[in-house]
User: Fold these one by one.
Assistant:
Number 1:
Amino acid sequence: MHVMNNGTGEILIAVAHPSEEEAVRRAASVAGCNCEIIVTGVGGAAMSWTLQKRLAQGGIHSGLAHGGMPPAPATGKLNMTPPPGETLLSHASGGVPVLVIGAGIAGSYVGSISPGAVVITVSDCFADMGVDDNGRFIPLFGAGLADADTYPFTGGRIPCKGKWFDLAAAFIPAVRGATVNMSSGSQAVIDRIRMTWDPEIETMEGAWLAYTCAMAGIPWISVRAVSNMVEPRNLKNWDIQLALRNLEQKMADLLKMIKDS
């Protein structure tokens, strides 16, 4: 695969697993997009570290270095059409992305969002970050360890908004996300997260990507295809291949719309 470096103005797609990268790479090829794809590894630590390294290459640093407020969002015209004979960018270009897309699979808490459904997150949260008070879970915010309305949080959630979110939400359902360190697979944990956050999908990276991008002042959206219901763990009910196929199709449609916007 040929690697291109067009500097700034790229769209950066972050995925956790190589299987998701394959789906996204095919989608970008169909859309004729000059995108950059990074495979971060599974989980919040891997996503956050890899994404921060990539953004730092473009001269973007954490908003914490600016008194806790994010720098101004990057601006520029998306250049998504590769020159004749060129193909998808799959390694870091070092430029400042104008948009980060988190893409991958997810579990669903809602019967109407069944395996194969593709959604975007309207907000995300760190669903299992907090205090275990003798079996009762208290989020960081409820325990007085963080302010639920200090940027980038609103009510303990990180909202997604802006023109790229509006464009995607016009044809992809927008749902509430929950990000966990341990994939939920027992009824007690599922009930706890549902009661605390009322989420519609669950991932292991979404809020980490949202937080990193928000603090860096980079617009972000998260596209997820449902592979399973969040229920007592039963891999026989999972359909990862269906989720990846539908993720590929919807990402191709989205990238075409971004390209033409």
Number 2:
Amino acid sequence: MNILVIRMSSIGDIILTTPVLRAIRRQFPQAMVDFLVMTQFAEAISGNRNIDHLLRFDKHRYAGIGGILAYARQLKRRRYDLVIDLHAKARSRLLCWHLAARVIRYKKRCWWKTLGVRLRWIRYHVDDTIVRNYFQPLKVWGIHYQGETLEFDYSADDARTAAAFKGTIVFAPGAANNTKKWPREYFGDLGRLLAGTIVLVGGARDHADLELIRRRIGDRCTNLAGQLSLKQSGALIAGARFIVTNDSGPFHMARAVGTRAYVIFGPTDPGMFDLGPNTVLVYREVPCAPCSLHGDRRCPQGHFDCMRQLTPSLLAAIITRDGASGPRQCAAPRQVHPCAAKDEGHLRLCNGF
């Protein structure tokens, strides 16, 4: 049996497919399993033991409808029996249309819900986690949800590259959209409140913003934006004391490698993820949040309270009380409303959600 799994982008969403790949391999141990991803995101899934062949789609080489159809003709030669479309957008749908195979497609949110959120008629609350939704259409093939344990692979060479920064605190201030980013000056102030060496990770385009954070923290902070591959960044996170991150790729990388993560949510719904006991969700429950599917360029209300009210001193107090000293497991998921400080208000702090 030949199976193709499609998830083109992005880093976090691709890592979220790893429970599905594990379940496919368990159900069909003798099958050939291919995974199709955009070239720039291939490192998010390469090396996964449940994939036989990693196929890369170059969106520049295969641009437009003609390019997609040309690539589809190449895929058709691999004679797939089953295609699992976890991307479910125009490009993947067009590819599937030409493969002459049985197609199972991940069902996204209802169209009216997407429209209502974009028009600001309703607040956005998810129906279920992304991983659970990935599994929904697979039940007919005997592939069932069995938890949200993620995987991220890196090599011994990647680990050696990251070894110089083992035991540091990692900050990942980037995100795909502006409103998913905790203010950069807040990261700088948090760094000044925490003891220890701090490393900043991100892509090359993040370097200028992260340099401002580094200067605010001082000499015990190193800006590695654009200097590490995704695999090397994963190895760095694996050896960290803990990571402070926005809702972005490094958050899921930390979940996959088992590092203590403090993840900051603002306009998006944390219910998208079934967080494990090694993740602390920090989320300000303001009346207008969650307001966005994936974040926006600017706060639709203009005040950005969901992030602005989450102060560096508040997060530093959470980290200190938590006693984070390295990757560890808590006895059980918990949800509390810490109100020791007057400015904490309705802050949700969760291990698990």
Number 3:
Amino acid sequence: MDERTADALLALNHDFYHEFAAVFAASRPVGEAALTCILPYIPPRARVLDVGCGNGRLAFLLNAERPGAHYVGVDAVEELIAIARTAAAELRAISFEFHILDVARPGWSAQLKAGPEVASEGSFDVAVALAVIHHIPGFERRVALLQAMAKLVHAEGRLILSTWQFLDHARMQRKLVDWAEIGMAKERLERGDYLLDWKRGGRGLRYCHLVDEPELLQLAELSGLRLCQTFRAGGQEGNLSLFAVMHRA
């Protein structure tokens, strides 16, 4: 995918989350199965990196279930980070920090702080990217994101990803919108790229790529990771998202 197209898709999604930050955050509860299902893969007192953290709801789950953890959340949308920081002020059982960083852009990991220091290779026990990778335009950018995350996790650590399988459900298929609505020519896109609408608190549009299990295997291999387990969870149907648990190869 060329840079101009990728930048346009990133801007589309950034504008969406900027406009709908409060409504989106309210729609993502801590007790949702798409979040709680990853808890068994997070050890006690873990150092956890949450990539695309949104409203920081994973911090609240860790506060309840993994006291002593250290949580670092990063997101490109300033409004979501502001919501996360305000809400997290009440957390007492974990240490936490939030940073505004665009993980779709090169160099984000070199700017990441983990406490007073810049995060270095192997800084984290677990790195999580929930419902994030499908918002990254271009296969090469998705590989780059996983490569950066892999370096930040120590040799015995884990990466946990989830990605929407929106073509599997009629409810989600009804959200598909023709690319002509934003004046985007299909030949500029990759196979598996879609435009989805949102109708809560107004109407918005988001770019999503269908990252299926074969692509997850490709991404893992090219990122120096080993795909150890996949499972489905989340959504009204109970299986909207495909989860992947990866280790460094």
Number 4:
Amino acid sequence: MLFNSLTFWLFLPVFLGAYFLTKKNARLWVCLAGSYLFYGWWDWRFLGLITLLTGLNYWCGLKIADSASGGAEGGGRKHYVRFSVVCSLVILGFFKYFNFFIDSFAVVSDSLGIGFNLGTMSIILPVGISFYTFQTMSYTIDLYRKEVDVERSLLKFSVFVSFFPQLVAGPIVRARDFLPQLQSDRVVEWEDIRRGTNLMLWGFVLKVLMADNLAVTVDRAFQEPTAVSGLYLLIGVVFYAFQIYGDFAGYSLIAIGLARVMGFRFNVNFNRPYLATSFSDFWQRWHISLSSWLRDYLYIPLGGNRKGATRTKINLMLTMLLGGLWHGAAWTFVAWGALHGAYLILQRVVSTQVAGFLPNSLCRFIGWLSVFSGVLLAWVFFRAQGFGEAFLVIEKIITFDRFELGTILRRLFFLKGLLLIVFVFGFEWLSSRFDFDELARKHTSVNSLFIVSVLLLLSFWGMFGGGAFIYFQF
């Protein structure tokens, strides 16, 4: 189901009614049944995969815990965690990357004159497989590290894996944050409902109001880059930066808000990323659940910054390359990750050279401009269908190809999109300086004004075409 579909809004009140009318295990069964219905709505066959990963990691978790309690600190526990990680990665690799690696191998063999053709398979990519695979892997790894307690209830563990608000597009919720909340019934207070509802409404503003309106201009720019001007492509790239932010941050807010209405607390997944003044700052604000996952389970185990400057740079690049590949089975995603890896490495070199030479305010502005420009460049590869298209877009922009106002197509959508970006960016800039939520909490009239204003904006300017969320493909 899509959060912005009629089906979901028919499903939600029935689910919440059953959720609040039940207690203890009955409530957990409602969560599990509702989550499986939500996930299986696209294709019931996907349920077999999620139950397989659930059962596999539940069993491995028990074995890791029992091996530790039996005194086998080394071999047994290590074998089970390796088995869990390898099986999870094999399943993810098969469904997401099998054809990608086969095609890449064929290209390389053709270039060498060998000409191997292994053929490809018609593999359906299960929605959200990257998210719940990483979520289950983090559980067994944390259990091995003794950073989380074993979950011996299969029902609770199944709810942890399949909880529908964040199942298909995150945020990635760690076991240590979620499983303790499943040990008892959540006591839902009015503040949870108020805060959760506000988060969901702002999530819909980002998705339905901003992202889906910007998509009209972005799609036109990238569908026929040869037919449009460099100015229109530049607008398309800028709009895409805010489209993907609104789309993904919007989903995260809806998921976090819905969980809050049910009494669960999830961590923030986006924190005004386009206000970042360094690339490391950007990755502490963008898709926080993934960046922290890559840091804790990849970058730090590789050695982090503990083994010298050269090794640190290698670790940064490897982490970002794999982060790019996580997003999709295409070399353009790897290029996107490589660019961000290069940015982080360059930042470490440059920051030590220029520190103290410029006023802090000027440094922050230059940092913000550099980060935003670099992120825009990387988004070209993320959005393009191939390197040829990406380089064409970049070439037409940097050569100022037909930078004339008359080349802007669909000017109404352009003006509408520009206003929405200014509105959202302005609100987020202000919210970084004023605590609007605290104001809304103390004054009911302020909270009511926020709700009415959002509903009016969505009614007049919202795009309710049921467009899928971008990160569903990852």
